[in-house]
Amino acid sequence: MKIPFNKPYLTGREMDYIYQAVYSGKISGNGMFTQKCQRLLESRYGFKKALLTTSCTDALEMGAILADIKPGDEVIVPSYTFVSTALAFVRQGAKIIFADSRPDHPGIDEDKLEELITPKTKVIVPVHYAGVACDMDKIMSLADKYNLIVIEDAAQAIDSFYRGKPLGSIGHLATFSFHETKNINSGEGGLLAINDERFIRRSEIIWEIGTNRSEFFRGEVNKYGWVDIGSSFLPSEITAAYLWAQLENLDNIQKRRIEIWQQYFAGLNDWAINNGIKMPKIPDYATNNGHLFYMVCGSGDQRNQIINYLKENGIQATFHYLSLHQSLFYKSKQDGRELPQSDRYTNCLLRLPLFYELKENEIEYIINTIKQITK
Ligand SMILES: *Cc1c(COP(=O)(O)O)cnc(C)c1O
């Protein structure tokens, strides 16, 4: 048996909608499909405004512009995350203050955030790793106390909740990814959610190349022009049409992914305990959106041994992030603080295949193969 790590799921309607978009005569951005996607996401998750972008990276860059990041401003980001979470702010000249992860979860350690805040701190970027919420009450109260902007990196967190509130609706701004590795995808794609009124008008301008074109199309102004900085952050209607087919199937996709996740958990829990391996933790304030199934091994050797054994048996399991504070790009700029939890997840975390079309017998095979490995 050969089982890949990921396989992007096609719901079946993608080509119909792309065909409609192409033959509608309006294939650039902000057309019918873009607006359908945005309206759906706003109403389903209570975002004040949703703007489709060409990637989560772009949405983070828009966030950095909206937060008015200037050289020397400090932005607190977990070290255990994808490059863009930090890079988007570095491009605006920010100094990144890397935070460690929690001992029980790869998410940012909320209890150690306050000591990282200085008079230069402007933004905190919590990342909802595996779609599991950070403790947002703690983060938002720090933001209130020190007058900071919170930008949720919800790239993995579509349709996941914190104390009943949708992720992405809590921070002042939030970003999502529709990259092909995410639950809902359009190949490349993303979303900026704006929850704070003060950013709404400017977000549309930055999105449309620094112009007030959106206001013009709504008939609010009688001509449009260059009014601010920005870029071409909006995807074409072809991308939005593909995304619409995915969003129509959101409930179905989530249901199946969560089932697979639960099957892994039930099948591997006893084995993990007996082998010194930690299973994923979902705090009681968070939900599970079935984005990814990970385990944390007792050592890097154990993790690599499992990956190799699975590979010999046709199963593609994989590690995840390399701590950003240890990266070639940032290491020399880092202040020398040790971030032991981030390094532990770098060395010991393992992810198993999880995609919509993964079949029952394949999941059984993966579980049984893993169970043959004992220390
Ligand atoms: C996938 C991901 C991103 C980047 O998303 P793109 O759409 O590929 O730009 C950023 N942050 C996190 C946490 C991610 O998982």
From TrEMBL:
The active site is at K182. This is dTDP-4-amino-4,6-dideoxygalactose transaminase. It comes from bacterium (Candidatus Gribaldobacteria) CG_4_10_14_0_8_um_filter_33_9. Keywords: Pyridoxal phosphate. The modification N6-(pyridoxal phosphate)lysine is found at K182. GO terms for molecular function: dTDP-4-amino-4,6-dideoxygalactose transaminase activity; pyridoxal phosphate binding. GO terms for biological process: polysaccharide biosynthetic process. InterPro entries: DegT/StrS_aminotransferase (IPR000653), PyrdxlP-dep_Trfase (IPR015424), PyrdxlP-dep_Trfase_major (IPR015421), WecE-like (IPR012749).
